[in-house]
Amino acid sequence: MSLAALLLLACSETAPVESASAETAPAARTRTLTVAAFTTPREAYGKTIMPAFAEQWKAKTGETVVFEASYQGSGAQARAVREGLKADVVALSLEPDITVLEEAGLITHDWKAGAGEGMVTRSLAVIAVRPGNPKGMADWSDLSRADVDVLTPNVRTSGGAMWNVLAIWGAGTRGFSGVTAGDEQATIDLLRGVLARVTVMDKGARESIVNFEKGVGDAAITYENEVLVAKASGKQMDYVVPPSTILIENPVAVVDTYAKANGNEDLARAFVAFLQTPEAQAAYAQYGLRPVDESQAPVGLPQPTDLFTIEDLGGWGAMKTRVFDKGGAYDHAVPTGR
Amino acid sequence: MKGPLLLRLGVSTWVTALVALPLAVLIVRGLEGGPAAFLEAVGGQGVRDALWLSVWTAALATLINAVVGTAIAWVLVRWDVPGRRFIAALVDLPLAIPTLVAGMLILAMLGPQTPIGAALSASGAAIAFARPGIVLALVFVTLPFVVRAVEPVLEELDPAEEEAATTLGANSRTTFLRVLLPPVLPAIAAGGVQTFARSIAEFGSLAVVSGNIPHKTLVAPVYILGEVEAGNTAGAASVSLVLLALALVLQPLAGLLARKAGGGRV
Questions:
Q1: What's the complex ipTM?
Q2: CB distance from A146 to chain B under 8 Å?
């Protein structure tokens, strides 16, 4: 199936004629593809991937593609699309935000069917530290030390912050960071210790790392790509990969209802397929994200001893109930003392 | 008088559509789950801590601006201080800059990476990402309200009354308390209500300055944002209703206070 799609892509001249059998081949026209994305891959899309796709599409069909891209926090983006932002394609930080659009009846196809199972990029939850790691951070448990001020965004406002909490939750329940495997109470205590050291809970992951760049805190729970991007732009920071951490996976999907209404289904599908190509995957990697296509992964990136996925923890549904819902583990871990 | 009638109709329609309608939607959304859902939404420890933090920091900011704002107005009206016009223009500036920027300015001056901020947090009296920062941001953002409410009233006052009191042997304290303050109190109360209402609703600067730690530095409007972002709009509306009710209750209270003090209406 995907081979057939690739062949179609390759036989570029004939593909549109076949699909538009009765119609005459469209004259060179301009089409607008609306993409609603979370903020992290902004540069990868805007500077590399979108221009490359537009060029390829033009060569194939003669049509000019103009991208209208919107970037904001993943949760806010999902809500905006649900409330009527007519995006053809969404690129979000985490699967539950896609689920929101499925439940709203906007995404109706099996978006996990294609290559990468719907995911286009990956990253790791890591600990950003000051240059040279002066506080000697090595593991999640170090974040609860009294001499360490920690930054992490608010899980209520930042979907991405959930990855941070799940990284600690997973590390604890899987028997790392000084917790016996399966001991949920001890994991909650570990999480409480870390949360007690949090001095700023920003609205989003980006605000959080910007605050860290400005000199707030000794450590920030963030994603590897945020640190790599910051370093690439000359900011002074390092990062530590704890022995056990979570593999972050970011999904992309065609928003069926809107793509259909916009007459953009073919274009949207082609764009999503393009994101799995080595070219697009390499572009993500260039901006600090880990590609899902392992062959495009930069060499020399640190690997944790125990890298787990959300599926290893039981999936998003189970984790929402167990950790994030009212009365869940997170609520229990938030220190209520002054 | 057809013209004025149309005008009145137009004005009331405008105000209804602009203010009353959205408020009605808010009330409906806040109460749509029934009393049990409302109580659940506003009864948790997290909400109560956030609401209480918003209320007391707003009250403190109001108190500070009631005193300082009145003093500023008095100085601006009564004395020809150098740069008076400049100061008068400065007073209004907090309303003209996005409050988010106000928060960033406070961080730029007092954040932990600044020398002052570092010294403050080393001595355990941090302002940024702590409760004093919340109050400071509120005092800044709401500075003009009391000043602008009190100023015109002071201008109306006849300096001769003060002079008469002094001539009759009243010391400056008595003159202030018995002659100057009573007619100004309603204006202070009116400005104070505005200050308080604006403070409990303040979002932009506090989201940046406060640190947003639940139970410690998370104020109600930022808590509400969390509920919205988490998809709990009904819960968010419920908490907003509490803030709205607080502002509404305060309005007549301030009027009562002013009347008791012997002043006019608010």
A1: 0.71
A2: no
